[in-house]
Structures are given as C-alpha cells and as structure tokens.
Amino acid sequence: MVSKLSQNWKYVIIILLFLGWSIGNFDRFFMNYAILGISKDLQLSASQTGIVLSSFFAGYALMQIPGGWLADRFGFRKIIIIAVFAWSVFTILSGMAWSFMSLILIRFLFGLGEGSFFPSASKGIASWFPQNERSRAMSFMLTSGTIMGVITPIIGTQSMQSVGWRMIFYIAGAIGIIFVLLYVFFLKERKGSTVGITENPAKSKAPLREVLKTPIIWNLFIAYFAIYAVQWGLMAWMPTYLVEARNLDLTSVGYISAIPAFAGIIAMLGSGYILDKLPEGKDKVIAAIFAVLTAVFLYLMAFAPNIAMFAVYQSVVTVFMSFNIILIISAPLKMLSEEVVGTANGFINTGAQFAGVLTPMLIGFLVDAFDGSYTVAFIMLIMFALLCAGSLFLIGYKKEVPSFNENIS
C-alpha cells in the first residue's frame, strides 16, 4: 500500500511546479516591459523589437516536442532541473546583451533552456494526480502565469525606473539558480510510475507517431496556436501600445496591465474546477463559444473610447482565453495514457510557441507598414480567435477518444 506521505507528496510537487513556473513566467513577461528600455538603449525599430520578442519563442517552440519526449523517456524530474538551470543562466545573460544580434541569440537560447519545463511538468501532473484532478492541478500551476501577469507589470515598471532593466535580469536569474537547488532536494518521481523504463530505445519513438495520427490532437494543436497568438500578441505588444497609442506613462502602464491579469487568476482557478465537472464534449463546445466572444471583445478593445473601458474589455478577453487554455492543455492529460502525456503536450504546446514566434513579429511589421496604427494588428488577433473557435467546434462533435495503451505496450 502506498504510504500517506507518498500520496500527499503530490501537493509538494504541484507547489514546486507552481513556484518554478512563476519565476519562469516573470523572466518571460518582464521582457515585454524591459523592451521599452532595451529598444531605447539599443535603438531598435518596431520591426527589430518584434524580432527580439519572437526570438525567445523560436527556441522555446523547438524544445517542446524534444522536451516532452525526454520527460517520457527519462522522467520529468531530471528534465525540469536542467531546464530551470539553463533558463536562469540565460536570464542573467539577457542583462548583458550589448547589441541587437546578441540579444536575439541570448533570447533564442533562453527559449531552448525553458522549453522543456512545461511538457515535463505536464508529465509530472499526469504521474502524481488522478485523472479527475488533473485540470485543477494544471490550472493551479498555470495560475502562476496570471499571478506573474499582475506582479510583473508593477514590479517591472517600478524597478526599471530605479535599478534598470539589466539588474532585474541579474536578480531573476539568481533566484532561478536557488530554485534549482530546491528541486534537487524536493522534486521527486512517483514510485511505481511508468516513466524511464522503456528498454527498447527504438520503441520510445512510438508515442510521437501515434500522437500525430490522432485528429483530435491536431485540432488541439491548431486551437492552442490560435488562442496563444492572441495571448502573446496582447502580452508582447500591450505595454508599447499603451505608451504609443494611448499615451500612458510607464507607471500607469504597469497598473493598467495588472487589471486583466488579476481577472485571469480567478479565471484560471475557476476554469480548472469547472472543467473537471463538465461532461466530455460539452466542455469543448463551451470553449469554442468563448473563443467567438474573445473575438468580439478584441474588437471592442481596439475601439474602446477610454482606458477604463479598454481595461474592462481586456479583462473579459483574459477570462475567456483562460478557460480555453486550461481546456486545451489539460485535455491530453485526461484522454491519453501517462506514457505519452509529455510528448502529446509538448506537441500541442509547440503550436502555442509558434504563435509566440510569429505574432510579435507580425504585429511589429504591421505597425511599421501602417504608420504606427495598431488597428490591423487587432484585426489579425480577431481572426486568430475565430480560428480557435472553429477548431474547438470540430472537436466538440467528435466522439472518438484516442487510446494509446495498446500501441505503446
């Protein structure tokens, strides 16, 4: 019989994943505010700024599938420790960037370092938590991102004015190194887990092939790409938009940006609880409707008459997107066997990171092409929200549930 201590260790695991993803998200989100100072110091154009913001996601996207496969093959613990150490080093190096090209290279390597954390964490959740608790566990871990969405704008904008963007990167990287030590001592694999026991290396490639054969996984890939195109488009460019198009000062940008992020905290936690209660199929139809509403409120954001209504509309968008994000990324944890969860979520999350690569660059090019206007950029985000809705509607009417147990045994 499994000891009570072993049963309850899942709570230690999810807290560790929450804390690690918090510092990871701070490192990523702070860049969206640091770029205001970086662009000024390094004299970057809007197009160059977009490329810098996208360079992280290029490396991050490339590591999603390999990171998931490594977690399936060797266990999530080792991969997470390596990921946190690597991204912490490159966070420190971000503060040392001296040119446009050096910044692109460092941020790309930063993305490679951080890329395996999420699929490995998904593997850890599937390993430690029963199926009917996995959406809640995932939503709790991802809530760290929304909490950092509240904290980062305020701390980031204030600290940039006092100690500068370079020092913040140094401090965040040092905190990450401390987390590495924490993980070495307290992050554990569950006894009896099936990870890391594949004796035939050739057989270990099978999960990705089986994942790619499943239409539902492709629908989730497209939906996640689309909703994260909206997410990262807003997050990467919103500080610059508020300064340039809405004429706010840096301090005001910090507080305004925190409002929708605070709404996202509640939405993330609530979404995980609701999704664990909803019947299979209906959850995806509801998410598709929410994606359509996301498009509607993006339109209202673009033409908001004042900053107060803008913040309200963005908060509503954040709530709808939070539900979709939790549904998409927790669906494989419920549909698939533990042996392929890391690979499947790594593949699906690759879609989100491709969106992170493309969207900031596209917005930068559009802003330059239309003489500083952001209207076309908002139209592009609206189209992405509708793409997400279409992909989720298709899933809602599919009855088959993929099973990988026979294929990987």
TrEMBL record:
Pfam families: MFS_1. Residues 13-400 form the Major facilitator superfamily (MFS) profile domain. Coiled coil: none annotated. The chain crosses the membrane at residues 12-31, 51-72, 79-98, 104-125, 137-155, 167-187, 216-234, 254-273, 285-304, 310-333, 345-367, 373-395. It is a multi-pass membrane protein. Keywords: Cell membrane, Membrane, Transmembrane, Transmembrane helix, Transport. It is found in: Cell membrane. The keyword Cell membrane applies. SUPFAM superfamilies: MFS general substrate transporter. This is MFS transporter. It comes from Neobacillus driksii.
